[in-house]
Design brief:
- It is a single chain.
- The chain is an all-alpha fold.
- It has one domain.
- Helices cover 59% and strands 2% of the residues.
- The chain has a two-stranded antiparallel sheet.
- The longest helix is centred in the middle third of the chain and has 22 residues.
- It starts with 13 loop residues before the first helix and ends with a strand.
Length: 268
Amino acid sequence: MGSVLPGLFADDSITRRVNRENILLLGGGRALLMQLAHPKVALGVDEHSDFRKQPIRRLRRTIRMTMAIVFGDRETALGAARAVNQVHAGVRGRDYRALDPDLLLWVHATLADTALVTYETFVQRLSVRERETFYQEFKLMGELLGIPSARFPDSLRGFAAYLEQMMSSGPVRVDRRALELARQVLRPGVRLLPGPVMVPLEIITTGLLPPTLREQYGLAWGPQQQRVFRLAVKTLPRIISLTPPRIRVWPLPGRTLRFTPGGRAVSS
């Protein structure tokens, strides 16, 4: 296996334990829809990316960045953060810029909250202390990506209040652009896979979303959809608990991530 280079997070940290689970990919659509519900984030994504044609690409980049910072050695983690910041420096429009701490905080919040919600839904519940520790540790990634430490809510309780305020009386509102982009998230044009194959994933994304955003996106949530979601919540944790680590988690415990010049992640 070779020597394990130190990273920003300890291998036994709650941050690595949560983000190591491959099942967290099921929360990707939730995180994207929450981000797009902020009109300025949706505008920046639409004007500075090929999201309408390649919606999965943004999610893939976010996953690579998160994995590099959480599981990479120190050099890899800091390099990934610098690369993201350089890209964000050029993303700006008439009334927004990607390096705006308020926008960065919202995007960071969607990733932290989605990781917790997805893990607790499909893997196992966390204790109050574990949830708080995860929140405090995950701030480090936000700080590396340009969020001043003073901008973060002090505690997980404050974080929950921040999320609620942003969606109830704050700027987060699903507008026409978000609705258009959401169609690409829920039914991406994945080659060789017909639209109906994505329906179960759409139901899981819908079930994981905060109810207020689910309603604003106009997503179906009747008895049939709720039955499918409950079945997934009931069966997936059992399947995961019996799944060998080589399939269930990545990278394997005790290994760190390094990235090749081409951006391919390797475990060592």
